[in-house]
What does this fold into?
Amino acid sequence: MTSLSFTHRYEPALTGGLPPLLLLHGTGGSEEDLLPLGRAISPGSALLSPRGRVLEHGMPRFFRRLAEGVFDEEDVKRRANELADFVAEAREAYGLGELTAIGFSNGANIAAAMLLLRPEAIRSGIFLRAMVPLSEPPAVDLTGKQVLLLSGAVDPIVPPENSRRLAAILREANAEVYAQALPASHGLTPQDVSLSQQWMAKDAQPKPL
It folds into this structure.
């Protein structure tokens, strides 16, 4: 769909009482990529899945980067605000409550940036293989926000210390963070899905990084 500010897919809820999901793909993905993941993690939730508006060698992303792991931080801020505006548009257009963001890689990074810059945009988040999006995070109060942060212990893209720093940043802002390093690389595993399912049901208690 293109009637709002981002090309996106929307699937209405099948079950009442579940939080709607904001699905944010990785580099080279599309609005279709994370729909199966969203259905697996929270069957019955409404799904809102936008396509990143930045192209890198023809591959959609949510913000520009200068090199692998080096972000254009001014663009991060601009795009996070654009995405937050889209979320507000979509909530009004589709009659949605507060969303839980599920982001993978580049999508997890923009979700983390949006949480830090526009915390009203999402109620909680599942950040899969996320990095610190801003070298100087803004002062923000994330009291009441909950985040599941799943990293890969042998991820060649996201260093373990970067994941730990992101968890620390969010905790220092008073977010409730559950973080775990999985025996995985950058790609997603069945354990990512099972832990995310449990966390959505508020049953998971991963060990802190």
Q: What stands out?
A: The chain has a mean pLDDT of 94. The chain has five helices and eleven strands.
